[in-house]
Specification:
This protein is an alpha+beta fold. Helix content is 14%, strand content 30%. Keywords: Biotin, Fatty acid biosynthesis, Fatty acid metabolism, Lipid biosynthesis, Lipid metabolism.
């Protein structure tokens, strides 16, 4: 496969200009993905094998009633360990519809591991763990629209 280095450079410049972390283009059988931020290209595939097939409900905080769903547990928004969305878009918990989720509640993660993806303008932006720790809560469901600065997950 020959790589169009001019296209790769143009995509890299678009990343720098827009502040995005990843951009992908597809033309027939050829697909080119350019990303920045130190994530290895194989990270989603590695996380796929360790991921649980379903998101378990988050453990309830002491003296708090059980939440009906992970996305309804609002108190985590004030938690210092909350990972928030850097953009408006659509949240995806797995790299593709038929794949398992990147992470589940209770999973151990390392700094830089992909927690989920926020799609904005057809660009898949990985949302990574800011620290080593354990996924305490997932505050969104697959396919949810998300707003800028919306709490997505709690990692501590």
């Amino acid at each position: 496969m020959s790589v169009d280095s001019d296209l790769v450079r143009e995509l890299a410049e678009m990343l720098a200009e827009t502040g995005l972390t990843e951009i992908e283009v597809e033309d027939g059988d050829r697909r080119i993905r350019v990303s920045r931020g130190g994530l290895p290209a194989a990270a989603p595939a590695q996380a796929l094998y360790a991921a649980a097939p379903a998101v378990a409900p988050a453990p309830a905080a002491p003296a708090a009633p059980a939440a009906a769903g992970a996305a309804e547990n609002v108190p985590a928004a004030d938690n210092a360990n909350t990972v928030k969305s850097p953009m408006v878009g659509t949240c995806y918990l797995a790299p593709e519809p038929s794949a398992g989720n990147f992470v589940a509640v209770g999973d151990s993660v390392k700094k830089g591991d992909t927690l989920l993806i926020v799609e904005a303008m057809k660009v898949m932006n990985p949302i990574v763990s800011p620290r080593d720790g354990t996924v305490q809560q997932l505050l969104v469901d697959n396919g949810d629209p998300v707003e800028f600065d919306q709490p997505l997950a709690v990692v501590s």
